[in-house]
Amino acid sequence: MFIEANPRYGDPYGIDDDTELEEQAVLLEDGEDVLMAHELTPGTLDGPIYFVDGVRRTDFRAHDVLDSGMVVRGLAGSFGAGAVCCTPGARPGFVGLDIQRRLLWTHGHAASLPQAGGWQWQVEGLASTDADQLLPALQRRMRDAEADLAGELATDGAVVVRDGPLNRLYGISAEVVGLVKSHHKTYLPADKHREVPAILARPGQRTSLFRLRDEAWGCFLRLPTKGRVSPWAGIVRIDVPASGGLERAREVADRVCALIPRYAGVAHTDPRAPANLQPIGALEIRLRHLLGDPAGALRAGRDAAARVDLAAPHTAASPSE
Amino acid sequence: MSNTETPQAGLDVTPVAADHPARDVGVIGVVDGTQDCTTTTFWVVTDPDASVELDDLVAVDQILPDGEALTHYGIVVGQQRLIEGASWSSDTVRVTEQTMPGETVRCAEVRVLRPYPERWVAPEPAQEVRRVQGDERARALFMDQMEHPLAVGLDAREQPVYVDFDFINGRKGGHVNVSGISGVATKTTSLLALLYLLFETPEGRRLLGLYADQTRALVISVKNEDLLHIDRPNRRCTGDDARRWQLLGAENPGPFTDVGLFVPPRPGSENVVPMSETRVQPGEVTAFGWTPLVFINEGLLAYILADADDALNQLSFVEQRVRTALLRWAWPAQGHPGAVILREPDDHPPTSFERAQRHVSGRQPRPAGPDGVLVRDFSELVEFIEARFDDEHQDFVGNLATQTIAAFSRRLSAMTTRLGHLIRMGVTAPTLDHQVTVVDVHALHDSAQRFVVGAMVERLFQEKQESGREPLRLVMLDELNKFCPNHGRSPLKELLVDIAERGRSMGVILLGAEQHAGGVDATVIRNASVKMVGRLDAGDLDAYRFLPPEMRERATLFVPGSMVLHQPVIPAPIPIRIPFPPFATAREEAVAAEADPGDIDPFALPGTR
Fold first, then answer.
1. A21 CA to chain B: closest CA distance, Å?
2. Which one is predicted more confidently, B98 or A107?
3. Which residue does chain B place closest to A83, by CA atoms?
4. CA distance B579 to chain A (A)
5. Could you tell me how far CA A83 lies from the centroid of its own chain?
6. How many Å apart are CA B22 and CA B137, to the nearest integer?
7. What's the first-to-final CA gap in chain A, in angstroms?
8. What is the DSSP-derived secondary structure letter of residue B113?
């Protein structure tokens, strides 16, 4: 087994994984062809609001040569998921912080690395033979961890804001929404899309809900910005589950959109402000810190690999995926 | 007796204050692995519910690779708290506005006092840190290394802190030095407290041993008459203060029990009348001075020119010549005790002062007459010297230049008004008949103060050179910067430096104090084995390199009664508190109840009034 340094660590999460849908959205809340602003008065917390997010990083890449001479590719990565809990009258705190490490192989390979310096990667052999599928697999595991945590937190009365689009649906009573910062695709008809910045003239306004896909509807929300900014700056998309029907979606969108602007990110401390909310920004810093020292991860990988018994049979195990 | 298993054995007499919760006992946190753990310092991440304060004693255990258990004892010297994750100051505002998370982390800096056993290995990160209590506290403070421990103050949790008396009495080291800004009276109190604990507690007397009754302290009072009251109880000393003294071993805290008080005679008065405004009852105080005979025979003229810069010019040559000439010319005056007859010697005395001293000791009194001048006081003495200068008598003038003689003459005349009243018939130098002798010189001119200090200390030092180290002679001298300044040379300074260097082996122990150690000759400070530092002036910190930086900074904030104790046995200085004294250190503290109850004592310890 051979270990190579990963040329870049600390991939910013979220930019490359907003799994958007191809079909065009349908306007539905205020009638066909109507996209208008909804004025919201700033809400006050009456229960907990959770912000859920995750980070991941490639620790190193690996390859192994099987007895047959075949080369299999591997990727070791660390990911973490967690949440910030804001409750009325209390200092926000971190909850559910969890860090996991995986060594993912192609071809169902299952060679493991012994523990080294406190680092341990859990081995998984993927059915895929394509090394390019390793990083997305790591990403999916992180997203699953986020989704699991959001599910745990989404108890009655709690508001849960997930960073990124909704990839899982929760019970009808939970108010779980997704917050999408980047807008790679246009869902609305081109003319409507162009109008969004103008429609959302003031911070705290949201647009009419539109249909993203069967399970999720969305709206745009303008967060407060300072100074002269580009038209789309400060506009985020809020994804709401569709399973409760239009009235319920409207209720959730109103409630959540009234709460979120208060947490808008601060421009001078976060280049992704205001869309990267303060709790999310702090959570990412904390999670990234908990991933551990990247140089330490590489060193631990090399130390562990040096100890692997090269005489052990190299045969592909049964694939897990 | 000494090895009982009870945790309270011997030392742990004070219960921890009631407001410390029960969880306060035991583990307080873990060694911080993100900061360097060295053999001298480490940090502790303290538990949120642990109450940790500066000066707390803590311990960390580890097992060394060879299997030996090692414990580091340390003292908390600093603390810091911050919100982890907040990287901008404005983040703090957002944390309080409850939009951003942040966790407060509390850390304490610990200075290692002692690795036990003595293996110089750093503490192990992530190890649990526990509070040191009971018998372990004695080990942390090197009590097992002290053959003769003497309690000198209390720590923050009211447990006694000890010094090894062997480092005071001259056996292993000697001398005590106290620094601190004026106005908080801590310096004098701490030195008096030391004397009190030595003389007035069973433990102190046990340390003095066979010589307890012959041990003497000379206390020179330079500021005001406050120290003339230490033989009276302090009416402001509360029951709480008394309890603290009991913790230090004073069974029945009260005044000094064996005190002699000396003050200068009133100037211009025909009879010898003690000059005191606060001790006016007959017999309360004794006037001191030197007769012309003693002045001449002991060569005290040297201390007349005790100004720092006098030694830089030729004046000291004149002084030596005149001093020797007077000695060779002087006979005791018949019918005038203490006065002298000055006449040209006819018995061939030696020309060196020391040898002449032995020669003249056998001289019989002579009557006044045409061949001898009767000198009864300082002005007559000055008159006589001036006349010899006018005669250009070889014994007095020698080959010295006329200008130098004139300068000496001027200096001498100026002294007449400053200390003339101290040199007269009918007075005696302060005698050390009591355990503690207080000599008040505050009302004297600086030159006269230097003269008195020089005259007394010289005699004391001479006496001790001829006997053994014990019984001890403790000399308590405040404002050392005045008597032994950092710059210049003078006979008095040379005497004090000599005591600092050699005195400890002769049992002459200097208990010195000054506002700023930098103003005092470095030899004197360096030779003090035990150093105490009270409140420091922020501008003076350089002179206190024996304190670690954080302690120097902290000493600028000390309240009255707080000191740092530095002694050779313990590598880190220990903050201590001196309880409010049971003996009066001011007139208001001594006089009975009708005194103004409203005047606030700046000296009072917080929480005792």
1. 32
2. A107
3. B101
4. 43
5. 12
6. 19
7. 22
8. E
Span A234-254, pLDDT tens digits: 899 999 998 888 999 999 999
Cα distance from B47 to chain A (closest Cα, Å)?
A: 17
Strands (E), B264-350: 286-287, 330-332, 340-342
Q: How many CB atoms lie within 10 A of CB A50?
A: 26
Helix H or strand E encompassing A301: helix A294-307
CB A52 within 8 A of CB A163: yes
pLDDT at A11: 37
* C-beta of residue B423 within 8 angstroms of C-beta of residue B289: yes
| Whether complex ipTM tops 0.85 | no
* SS3 at position A60: strand
Residue B139, helix vs strand vs coil: helix
What's B23's DSSP letter? G
Q: Give tens-digit pLDDT for B16-48.
A: 333 434 334 589 999 999 999 999 999 999 998
Option in A94, A278, A286 nearest B94 (CB)? A278
Tokens 């700033």 belong to residue: A42
Q: Which residues contact residue B60 at a Cβ distance below 8 angstroms, ignoring those fewer than 6 apart? A: B31, B42, B71, B72, B74, B123, B124, B127, B128, B129, B130
Residue A309 has a pLDDT of 56
Is the CB of B101 less than 8 angstroms away from the CB of A285? no
Answer yes or no: is pLDDT of B489 > 90.
Answer: no
Q: How far is B88 from chain A (nearest CA, A)?
A: 8
The residues facing A116 across adjacent strands are A119
Place of tokens 């230049």: B401
Lowest mean pLDDT, pick from A17-31, A262-276, B388-402, B528-542: A17-31
**Does B102 touch chain A if contact means CB atoms closer than 8 Å?**
yes
Please state, in angstroms and rounded to a whole number, the distance separating the CA atoms of residues B170 and B192. Answer: 19
Q: One-letter amino acid identity for A284?
A: E
Residues of A in contact with B90 (CB under 8 A): 266, 269
- A235-241/A175-180 β-pairing: antiparallel
Contacts of A281 in chain B (CB under 8 A): 100
Supply the pTM of this predicted model: 0.75
Question: Nearest residue of A to residue B101 by CA position?
Answer: A92
CA B350, distance to chain mean position in Å, is 40
Q: How many CB atoms lie within 10 A of CB B148?
A: 18
Option in B87, B88, B98 nearest A92 (CB):
B98
Three-class DSSP category at B594: coil
Per-residue burial over B222-242, b = 16 or more CB atoms within 10 Å of its CB, e = otherwise: beebbbbbbbbbbebbbeebb
The Cβ of residue B564 has, within 10 Å, a number of other Cβ atoms equal to 25
